[in-house]
Amino acid sequence: MRVAGCVALLCAARLAGAQAVPAPTPARTGPKPTRGLCDGEEIREIVVYASAPTVAGVRKIPVLRDVVQTVHTTTQAKVVLGFLQFHEGEKCTELKRAESERILRAQPFIADARVAALPLPDGGVRVEVYTSDEVSLLLGMRGGSKSPFLTGLRLGNSNLQGNAIRAEANWRHDGLLREGVGARVEDHLFLGRPNILAANITRDPLGGARQLSFTRPFFTDLQRVAWRAMAAASNDYPTFDEWNGDTHAVRMQRDFLDMGALARVGTPGQLALFGLSVTRDDERPYADPLIIDDDGVHVDTNPLLRGRYLTHRSARLNTLLGWRRIAFARVSGFDGLTATQDIPVGLQVGGLVGHSLKGLGADEADQLAAADLYSGRVWAHSALRIQLQGEARHTSETDAWDDILTSGRVAHYMQPSPGHLMLASLDWAAGWRQRSPFRLALGGGEGGLRGFDDARTIGGQRAVMRVEDRYAAPNLFGLGDLGLATFVDAGRVWASDVPFGRTSPVRASAGVSVLAAVPSKSGKTWRLDIALPINPENARRLEFRFSSLDRTTFFWREPGDVAGMRPRTVPSSLFSWP
Asked: Which range has the worst mean pLDDT, 7-11, 22-26, 514-518?
């Protein structure tokens, strides 16, 4: 029964991403060349060979072949050319060739990429670029063992018409309030350059949000500048779960604006980054809290939250500083089942110092300090990676620090044999003296314990240890990679100064995961987690999570309950690189 379910999972993923239509690029016969290197020759010609995530097993079934033709469009050649670090007529250097290959592989719609420089008889080189697409379907589901079995759904396409455009919609069933819906669109090659234009709108069971951003991320050391402009507004209802079953909420309206840019100083491999940004954040919490129960939303008579959070407006001019000494190690089967990825090796540090600007509407004099640190090291069959983030605000009027928020992750990978990975990680987050509604949940989301979605314990600090033992079978039946894993999560929260916060004992869960990657060597992993709490807060029950994520590009993304509390400008907002 388990084997049949695994094969069905692979077939469903394949239906979402395979295709039989020809790629809009020249066909090549014969074997692909080995990787050609550059040594200062002139680039006479660039040819792109883009391919869909084809799977031989599907092509043998005519009905499936016909169905999947309409699902996926191969990445357009112009999209691939837009991410290259060289053009025809330029000198071909090994650094530009390797960086182009790495940047292509880091795009969310490309599974793998190779860039080869082949000598021509009359001098110069012909550059051939080979790319293999990711499955374009975006699919995520969440449910449980009790009705309704499906409580969340995410559906979209990560590469519409092969043009590097991501579009997705999501739905969430709350049970008590209205249905939550949302939509998101991203163009990863806006204006024909590696710029990202993104728009996001959501209607939550309570409240909603709108966001528009235009970003040039810092993709490579060859890049001279990076920038970001973002505006957003939200109507939030942060909730606080009480142990007796009550859920308290504070309504808060928030508007913010962020505009900034960075410039590179130094040579690739070891450089510094300097920049400026202007930010404005307007938070308006309502004085009267609410309570959410089986009958809907009512005025909360508990005095703990009444008037606790005050309106504040911050406007700052921020100085951005960074230092980076990074190389890349190519590994396979670490964050993807068998995918090839480039792990940053070395050290990078980003920092921000912001000063309030009364002329832009700041209501008090303050300073914001923030920092981001990443370090990585790779050995023959293992790797160690660390990322830390933190910030705090200092007020001149009281000479005190508040809005202190830190988070981070440490992960150790060990690969005893090909296809076998052992992963141990520690994730934590901590906040103190937050001026806005803030709490961390024991379960739920990416940051909490699997198997504890119904836990009601909240606090101001959280630590979660995860251990996973995974086995991968590459290219099973010509459909893709299949993986099976066992995992154990253990963690706790501390009450701190959070309203209704409680310090929990160490809670734990264990479970199994079925994983699939389509096509073979794809960085995107389709994952079904089945978790059972070992020492639950309430009745023990199975929890199911189904997701499709690419973890090969970025080492760590903050959980939503942490990222949502940060000021909208922190070092990682402009120091984002694959």
From this structure: 7-11
The 10s digit of each residue's pLDDT in 445-480 is 778 999 998 888 999 999 999 999 999 999 887 778
CA distance 457 to 447: 14
> Sign of the CA dihedral 440, 443, 447, 449?
positive
Architecture of domain 2-133: Roll (3.10)
Distance of CA 287 to the CA centre of its chain: 34
Q: Residue 533: enclosing H or E segment and its boundaries?
A: strand 524-533
Q: What is the pLDDT of residues 155-164, one digit of tens each?
A: 888 899 899 9
Provide, rounded to the nearest whole percent, the portion of the chain with pLDDT above 70: 87
Beta strand 290-293 pairing with 296-299: antiparallel
Cα–Cα distance measured from residue 389 to residue 377, given in angstroms and rounded to the nearest whole number: 19
pLDDT tens for each residue of 521-537: 888 888 999 999 999 88
Domain boundaries, the chain: 2-133, 206-574
Residue 37 near residue 94 (C-beta atoms within 8 A): yes
Element (H, E) at 4: helix 2-17
CATH number of the domain at 206-574, please?
2.40.160
Ramachandran sector of residue 11 (left: φ over 0; alpha: ψ -120 to 50; beta: rest): alpha
Q: What's the angle, vertex CA 60, arms to CA 56 and CA 65, rounded to 5? A: 90
Q: How many other CB atoms are found less than 10 A from the CB of residue 379?
A: 11
- Residue 191 makes CB contacts below 8 A (sequence gap 6+) with none
